[in-house]
Each structure stands twice: as structure tokens, then as C-alpha cells.
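lol forgot to send this yesterday, sorry. C-alpha cells for the thing we talked abt
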């Protein structure tokens, strides 16, 4: 096989549920385990956000380190591993830095290195483990912050001093995950052909 030809090979499209084109059997999909519609603003926002977080995990499932680090849509620096790192910093920014008003350093993002969270996403098992640990830690912090907040009007403050309500942050996080789950769909399909809803 000529150099680069394996990289250029297009995988056959597939899904785990058979011919219906779904990512997986809906009865087994953890995103829809409750099967009940949420009641109220808080429950609705949290359920949507939880589903998108699960979707991000599912899009990365069953891939090896090299596949997770694969930048499969040249010339983009984006990879699934980069998405995990990026979302860890997004969660950290909005919930720790803005809402909780603490000042931890970013995990991967850097003012000095453009695309640091993406370019640093290389095929190293320790980096993959670190990214998952960081992302899960930031998600846990965010979930606890929201659980401990008396209502969605709680205010945080952006670096420029402007205030933002928790409800706006939750909507933004849904938007952020929705956008990146679309990227993850394309990245995953290019890696191993797995399609999804």
C-alpha cells in the first residue's frame, strides 16, 4: 500500500442498530433511559445538556488512541481527542471561572499557542487518560454547581466584568455541545464509518 493511501481510504458506513440508520438501538441508548419528558426549565435544560455530554462520550467510544487523535478532516486541527480537551476547558471556564468566580488556569487552551487544545491532542495513552479525567472532573464540578444553585438566575461574572445568569450559561453549553457533537459525527464517520443520529 502506498504511503498515505491507508489514510485516504474511505471506511464503509455502518451503525450498531442495523438497517434503520440509527447510532444504536433506541431501547439501549443511555441518553433516553428515563423515557419521560422533563418538567420545568431547570430539568429541561439539564436533560438536554446531559444528553449532549453523553453523545460526546458515545462518539468517542470503542476507538483507540490513534483514532481519537486522528485529524480526519484536513486541514482542520480538530480531532475527537481535541474535542474532549476543548470541552474540558469550556466547562472549566463557564462553571469554575465565570459562575464560581475561581481562577484556575486553563487546562489546555493557551494565549501563547493558537489551537493548543487541538494541536496537543496526540496519540498518547497518557494524554487520552488525562483528557477524559479532566473532562469528567469539570462536568462533575458543573453538575454540583448547578445542583447547589438555588435557581437559574444566579449570576456569574465574565472576565470583562459583565454578569451572566446560570440559565444563559446552560443554554450556551447546550449550544456548544450541539455544535461539537455535529463535528464529532463527521469525525467519527471518517475514522471508522460509524454513523449516528
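and heres what i got for the seq, position by position
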Amino acid at each position: 500500500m502506498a504511503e498515505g493511501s491507508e489514510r485516504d481510504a474511505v471506511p464503509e458506513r455502518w451503525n450498531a442498530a442495523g438497517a434503520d440508520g440509527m447510532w444504536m438501538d433506541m431501547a439501549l441508548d443511555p441518553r433516553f433511559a428515563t423515557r419521560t419528558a422533563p418538567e420545568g426549565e431547570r430539568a429541561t435544560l439539564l436533560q438536554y445538556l446531559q444528553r449532549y455530554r453523553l453523545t460526546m462520550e458515545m462518539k468517542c467510544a470503542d476507538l483507540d488512541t490513534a483514532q481519537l487523535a486522528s485529524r480526519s478532516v484536513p486541514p482542520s486541527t480538530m480531532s475527537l481527542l481535541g474535542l474532549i480537551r476543548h470541552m474540558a476547558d469550556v466547562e472549566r471556564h463557564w462553571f469554575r471561572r465565570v459562575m464560581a468566580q475561581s481562577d484556575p488556569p486553563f487546562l489546555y487552551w493557551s494565549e501563547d499557542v493558537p489551537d493548543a487544545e487541538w494541536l496537543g491532542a496526540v496519540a498518547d495513552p497518557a494524554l487520552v487518560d488525562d483528557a477524559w479525567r479532566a473532562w469528567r472532573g469539570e462536568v462533575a464540578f458543573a453538575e454540583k454547581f448547578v445542583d447547589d444553585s438555588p435557581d437559574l438566575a444566579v449570576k456569574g461574572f465574565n472576565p470583562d466584568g459583565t454578569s451572566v445568569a446560570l440559565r444563559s450559561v446552560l443554554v450556551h453549553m447546550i449550544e456548544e455541545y450541539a455544535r461539537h457533537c455535529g463535528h464529532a459525527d463527521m469525525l467519527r464517520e471518517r475514522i471508522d464509518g460509524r454513523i449516528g443520529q
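The radius of gyration is 18 Å. anyway ping me if u want another try
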